[in-house]
Amino acid sequence: MFKLLVVAISYLVANSNGLNENEDSIIYDPTAPKPCSNNATSAYVDILLVIDTSSNMGNANLRKIGTTLSLILPKFTIGQQSDITQGYRNTRVGVITYDSNVKIIANYTDINSVLDVSKILNGLTASNDHATNIGGALFTALGIVNPCSETDDPNCIQLPYSRPTAIILFAAKAAVDDLGDNLGGIQDTLVFLANNDATLITVNFNNADPILTGVLDIITYNKFAGVSMYNFVSTRSSLTKDFEWAILQANCYCEQANNLFTSVKVQFDSTTNRYSRYRECLWVGPRTVDQNPPVSTVEICDYLPIQSVPANILSADENKFFEAMILDSHIDGGGYIPSYFGLHKNKQSQWVYYGYNLTEFPMSNYTNWAPGYPKPNDKCAILDSIDSKHENLVWKSIGCDPSAQNFNYIWSICQFEGCDSTTLDCCYACAVENQGGFEGKVKKMKRRSERKIKNSKGRFNRLINKN
Ligand SMILES: *[C@@H]1O[C@H](CO)[C@@H](O)[C@H](O)[C@H]1NC(C)=O
Ligand SMILES: *[C@@H]1O[C@H](CO)[C@@H](O)[C@H](O)[C@H]1NC(C)=O
Ligand SMILES: *[C@@H]1O[C@H](CO)[C@@H](O)[C@H](O)[C@H]1NC(C)=O
Ligand SMILES: *[C@@H]1O[C@H](CO)[C@@H](O)[C@H](O)[C@H]1NC(C)=O
């Protein structure tokens, strides 16, 4: 945990550009990451406001929170019709407050309009309590995000689709123990929140407090990108724009409901000077060599329930992101296994990648071949390590038939299209149930593979085995 603290870098934004509302007209370019939609009108992200009402916050700050939110929430469609498979585009809002006690002030059913939110926020007053319970507040939020997470009741009904949630934490103080004894519990809650498609956005009301700042850095840390994201200081002049962007980023996600080892793509965006999500889902995982081992890289990714292709690595940034995902996915501590990716030679012997529809396009200028590679007769590529610590993954050429390579497990990295406020491409239930006329990018009849992945060394086992 200490290591995490050291690497958790505060995320600064040099300038905040307005949102580009026209981004949906951008033509799909397989050689660039797909931007997330900035269309708040069509958003279907739930918003949970988690507000520190201890004496550290004070009433003036509580009024400021109300004012800021009253500028942002009208852009979203507040409502209760939550079934995204039916095409509804509603944002549900809930409010939790905490000092040393955590209270649900309003759950989703209590709020039907921006006015409802304003009334609730205007009614908040700071308490005399100087202590705060951030861990308890996040755990309570988890109970709202996934009501089945806190109960063993087998009758608790889990929705067949998942809704993304933006949890906005307004914090003025953290307990010293939040960086000590409480940290493990907070991190466990964060993992479950992430698995339930919730994104943490934090607002720091006392930037001079190193404990609070350290805790918020951890809460917003993206371990694959190696940075804290959506981590704002309350005095920022661009806070309303930042909020709108961050909430829409929360609506740009990859469904984790199947416990696949999946992450939405995060890259540095040099036009806005900040790390950003992109509407692409990356999957790293093993396929066991069973009776029907895959005989091509396309077939490995075809195994996923959502239409997927072997992944592209178009920049050093992307290579680094995959490296972090692959290294993190290996639970057994050793036994590093190389992973196939999408680079391959086409019929004209050029190195190319796959677009989402399996059309091919030339590799970018970025290459990361290990010394002595590529070898002339190899037509596919793996990410592998050449150092004993397995820290820096480089490319090696290899044969394209995974079943011919003597691997115990065939690992690969695959990619599929993500969801954002204007698309449901990552939503399994949207296509499987085939309700609401959504095309979806999901293949049918894959329930069996889905279960198999869940039982293999996927995300769920990983969670249990770690720490
Ligand atoms: C945003 O979404 C709304 C509702 O789906 C739609 O009517 C509008 O055209 C979209 N705006 C843009 C810029 O795409
Ligand atoms: C939350 O929802 C339940 C019904 O699901 C309701 O009984 C309760 O009053 C709601 N409000 C709060 C603040 O818990
Ligand atoms: C596949 O995608 C490319 C762009 O990457 C597009 O030009 C082409 O029309 C698509 N083909 C099909 C069959 O959808
Ligand atoms: C690759 O490099 C060449 C030569 O430096 C340059 O002309 C070309 O635009 C680059 N292509 C890409 C996709 O960056």
Explain briefly what this protein structure is.
The protein is α/β, with parallel strands linked by helices and 467 residues long. It has twelve helices and 19 strands.
Strand portion, in percent?
15-25%
* Radius of gyration using CA atoms only: 22 Å
Overall pLDDT metric? 83
Total discrete domains? 2
Report the uncertain regions.
Answer: 1-26, 434-467
Mind telling me which CATH architecture of the largest domain this is? Answer: 3-Layer(aba) Sandwich
The CATH superfamily of the largest domain is von Willebrand factor, type A domain
Determine the CATH topology of the largest domain: Rossmann fold
User: What shape does the CA trace take?
Assistant: elongated
Total E-strand runs: 19
Number of helices: 12
What molecules are bound to this protein?
Answer: 2-acetamido-2-deoxy-beta-D-glucopyranose
Classified by CATH, the class of the largest domain is Alpha Beta
In this structure, how is the largest beta sheet organized?
A: 9 strands, mixed
Distance N to C terminus? 10 Å
The helix content, as a percent range, equals: 25-40%
Structural class: alpha/beta
Signal peptide: 1-18
Organism: Acrobeloides nanus
Domain VWFA: 46-247
Domain C-type lectin: 301-401
Give the helix/strand layout.
Elements: H1 2-7, E1 46-52, H2 58-72, E2 93-98, E3 102-106, H3 114-122, H4 134-145, E4 165-171, H5 183-195, E5 198-204, H6 210-219, E6 221-222, E7 227-228, E8 231-233, H7 239-250, E9 262-269, E10 274-288, H8 297-302, E11 309-310, H9 316-329, E12 339-345, E13 351-354, E14 360-362, E15 380-385, E16 393-398, E17 409-417, E18 419-420, E19 423-424, H10 428-432, H11 447-455, H12 459-465
Helix pairs in contact: 2-3, 2-7, 4-5
This protein binds 2-acetamido-2-deoxy-beta-D-glucopyranose (4 copies).
